[in-house]
Amino acid sequence: MKLTQPILPLLFGLGISLAPVTLQLIAQRSWAQTENVQEEAQRLLEQVPQLIEQARQQNGQYQYQKAIETLEQALALARQMKSRELEAPILHEIGLNYNKLGQTRRALEFYNQALSISREVGSAIGEGITLNSIGSVYHKLEQPQRVLEFYNQALPILREVGNRSQEAATLYNIGSVYHKLEQPQRVLEFYNQALPILREVGNRSQEAFTLHNIGGVYRELGQHQRALEFYNQALPILREVGDRSEEAKTLNSIGVAYNNLGQPQQALQFYNQALLIHRELDDRSEEAETLNSIGIVYRKLGQFQQALQFYNQALLIHRELDDRSEEAKTLNSIGIVYNNLGQPQQALQFYNQALLIHRELDDRSEEAETLNSIGIVYRKLGQFQQALQFYNQAWLIFREIADRSGEAWTITNIGVVYDRLGQPQQAIQFYNQALSIHREVSNRSGEATTIINLGSAYLNLGKLQQALQFYNQALPIFREVNNRSKEAITLSNIGAVYRKLGQPQQSLQFYNQALLIFQEIGDSLGKVTTLNNIGTVYLSLKQPQRALQFYNQALPIIQEVGVRFGEAVTLSNIGVVYNNLGQPQRALQFYNQALLISREIGDRSQEALTLSNIGAVYQDTNQPDKAIDNFEESVKITLEMRQSLKREHREKFLKNNQGTATALINLLIDQNKIERAFEWVNLATTFELADYTRLINADTKVTNPQAQQAINQWNQKNQELESLRQQLEDNFSEEKSRQIRELETKVNQQAEDITKKYPEVAELFETTPEDTAKLKASIPAGMVVIQPVLLTNITNVPNNIAIFILAKDKPTTVKKVPIEPAQFNNLIIEYRQKLQDRKATGYRTTGGELYNLLIRPIEDQIQTLSPKQIAIIATDKLRYIPFETLYDRKTKQFLIEKQYPINYFTRLSINSLQNLGAEDSVPQPKPVLGLGNPIPDRNQPYYLSGAEAEVQSLPKIIPGSEAYIGDEATLERFKREALRFRFLHLATHGCFEKDGCCLGEEDECEGVRQLDMPANTLLFADQNFDIANAALLGLQNTELITLSACQTALREDSNGEEIAGIAYLFERAGAKSVMASLWNAEDDTTKDIMVQFYENLKQGMSKGEALRQAKLSQVERHPFFWSPFILIGDAR
User: Which tens digits make up the pLDDT trace of 150-164?
Assistant: First the structure.
């Protein structure tokens, strides 16, 4: 916690007053002897106080070393007199001066001598005062627990001797320690004990100072009205005692309270009074502080040029006084203004100056504040990864220095980034952490602000009622603490919810309440924002002229304020109105003005949005080429913004910004620019798993030196791995095989780590135009590739599925099929459920509906191309349906019955197509490594007799094959033997349900909490294998890996990523193709299909045809039995 004003000095009134000391003399021998002793004693007695007074004067002139020398003379005299009573306070005074010199060890040495003597001579007051002084040294050493130890020893002693002034000082000092420990309620407890004593002893100055600092604690708690009450009690006392300096400081604090209460005009009144006094007293430091405070008011009012004037005046004074700490704080404030003005580069320039000074001074707290400010700039620039980097640095510092409040605000900032990244669930987690801390430290204002952020996250999730609940929680808190500005913001947010709920009149009601408050407190920026919001409501009410009135009110205000970002938004909104009014040229005029500003201030997000709006105007005015140019430029900016993101954030970011890409693809198709449309379909997505071969010699493709070094290190390891593989091919040995397995794991894990860590490396794996060209070039003769793409849920874009068709040496074609998105989604889920349920009926009807949407529109093209193989590139929930089951109700055939073997492609499948030579395209039976039924106990319900039988059949079908079942089907064996085989077969259980799997019968598993398998694992005899580690396997020699008897569960919140994920992981490990199951396959049927599959391979069929024929042998049965297995990757 921080106070605007300095807290009460730790040792007010603790100086020892040395009145003349009466000495008891030794028994008198004679009159003459007695007279001489008394004269000498009197001389010494007079000399000691003179020396002490001289030392105090030297102390007051900051001549601490000279003061020590003078006190040492006094100490020598006291010792000559053998006066322990006099020696103790002199030792105390020496310690005091050493403490002022910063020589804390020496200070403690003298204080401890003084303490020992005070106890020896029974001086309770001396003991109490010295304990306090020792406490002050530990305060300087930042050892608060030791401080409390000594203050708490001093307090009862001072009470016992009845020294009320010193008691009050000690109580206050204990409160100050709790302030350092960020325990505000304990601070208030001790300050409030000190206050009545100060009143009792008539110490009006210290009473006022204590009142002021109690106000400071309430300010830190966000209770600004309570703070104001105490400041207003302190102010008349300070005027009464004539303390002009403290009066000015208190006036400044009152200004701070009014500013925090959202009452900027009152704040300015008090700041200006304080400023006059500081100038009258020529207190340059406090003058600069108040200038800074005035700058804050004008900044909050959105009057940024005036704010800069006051900040620059303050900056000059801080530099004149060589006050580096305050100079840095003012530089930070100037940075905030430039950030608000939409000038991020200037903001960063000032923040970086401030950061250097904070680090130079080792001011950790202010360093963290500035790191937060830098993070905000990068967040506004859309460079979210950099923002998180700076926020995390700030968070670490706040934790180190135990600043809970700073920690809470930083956590909130991190939450905002995740919200902007389209990950509101993660944002909510951070907001809840921040909320707990604000409540822990009793910061009501911070609590309410975080509740608003929670509301915004739920708003982004589309959970409008929950958002409303949070906003309604925040509103009474802001009213309770009388924060008018935040009250208005909350009212505006409530208005936004009602607008989204389709209740425009209620929305306007709340927006107008907010507008009145912003006008009342003179907040120009808040006023402009609300005017824009009101205009948007009228636009939704089809009242464009009314909308224009409000936008036109906002425009001159924002231009006067100089917030370029706000000006661009308002101009863009005016453009929207003119477009709705059927005045496209006027719309373009305003959009182009907005575009210039967005480019000038480097606001890439707003630039992309404006380009999209311009593209929409050109599309509406039948200028498709110009529309396409603007849409493409907009999407390119979005993809450039993606470059700065770590891998984990990319997909959500693109989904959050997919509207323009969808509009572009739709328009390109309409304009018969099919190749470009297909290219953008693939460019405007992000990779799911990385193709690590792209790291080979990729160091020149990135600019980050650390990323370059990481790539170089990976290449060295990868070259070592390739060398070992070559040696193994020449001369197989168990030892080399083991070395390869270990090194493959390290190489792949290293690649995974650097892909996650460096955005520049993640960018290497994104789809490029060259990748699209490679896909087309790699398609084998006789294969047709079909890629359905959903173009849905985008305003002003008709809901369609675009079905792209690719074939070797043929132009890409596409067919758009209108759909209703919700109905289509429900149809997919319903069909999947029917396929999974062996007792379900009506699957032909549902499959027929999907056939009519996905296949019938392109039937003619397929028949014309007469393919030998169809490959499907499925995305989203389409991954959950086996296309071969789609049913043609005209011919009464499943698609699989139409002579087309079907396989599925992922992006990595291109590699297997490219890497296979001509000889590989000729089917050849190859030995199989089979592992199956790792549970040998026939009494177990999850014993797989069929899986065991299918594995045992492999050596009989294909000579050279090896089969391992039961206890021999271990993961270790699989890893060891896999390098020797081109075909791998795992007939075991797999679990892909998020909560894990029970492997018993249905009735046994119902309600079971104890699971047999964790999520995303395969079962081996020795252990469960985490599928995520499949990518670390070395399967470069593997032509096919079959995952038999696996199951995958469809979850309500799933979009099909698990299916692609399994295939990707094994493909990335090197496998050319993967056979996997879409749901829990029936054991005996699986055995029959698998045995037939390998028999077909032996007969010379391709993998695709072999699987098709194996399925056809069961086609008369429910698709549950024969359709779950799909072939992913190369089908030859």
Answer: 999 999 998 988 889
Q: Say if residue 452's pLDDT is above 70.
A: yes
More confident residue, 374 or 705: 374
Q: Which residues contact 202 (CB under 8 A, 6 or more apart)?
A: none
Residue 1052 banded pLDDT, cuts 50, 70, 90:
very low
Q: Are the beta carbons of 965 and 914 closer than 8 angstroms? A: no
What's this model's pTM, rounded to 2 decimal places? 0.72
* DSSP assignment letter at 1050: P
pLDDT (average), residues 670-688: 88
Query: Burial level of 705, CB count in 10 A (0-12/13-18/19+)?
Result: exposed
Q: For residue 259, tell me if it sits in a domain.
A: yes
* Whole-Å CA distances, 508 to 497, 511, 525, 1073: 11, 5, 18, 59
Q: Determine the Cα–Cα distance for residues 1054 and 804; give it in Å rounded to an integer.
A: 24
Mean pLDDT of 784-801: 93
Of the candidates 3, 38, 51, 46, the one whose C-alpha atom is nearest the C-alpha of residue 21 is 46
pLDDT tens-digit readout, 217-271? 998 887 889 999 999 999 999 999 999 999 999 999 999 999 888 788 999 999 9
Cα separation, 686 vs 642, whole angstroms: 9
DSSP 930: E
Sequence-distant (6+) residues with CB within 8 A of 579 are 587, 613, 616, 617, 620
For CA atoms 165, 167, 168, 173, the dihedral sign is positive
Q: How many domains does the chain have?
A: 3
**What confidence category does residue 421 fall into, taking pLDDT thresholds of 50, 70 and 90?**
confident
Specify the pLDDT at position 1078. Answer: 82
Contact 333, 304 (CB under 8 A): no
Of 14-23, 84-93, 333-342, 556-565, give the lowest mean pLDDT range: 14-23
Burial class (CB in 10 A: 0-12, 13-18, 19+), 125: middle
Query: Does residue 509 fall inside a structural domain?
Result: no
For position 969, which CATH number holds? 3.40.50.360
- The letter for the amino acid at 606 is Q
Residue 212 maps to which CATH number? Answer: 1.25.40.10
Does the residue 208 lie in any domain?
yes
Neighbouring-strand partners of residue 471 = none
Q: Rounded distance, CA 170 to CA 152, Å? A: 8
Query: Is 640 among the domain residues?
Result: no
| Residue 823 burial (10 A CB sphere; 0-12, 13-18, 19+) | exposed
Domain boundary residue among 251, 280, 309? Answer: 280
Q: Please identify, among 242, 260, 280, the residue that sits at the C-terminal boundary of a domain.
A: 280
Confidence of residue 1011 (pLDDT cuts 50, 70, 90): very low
Q: 979 lies in which domain range?
A: 924-1000+1009-1101
Q: In the structure encoding, which two tokens stand for residue 150, read together? A: 């000594």
Q: How far apart are CA 934 and CA 989, in angstroms?
A: 9
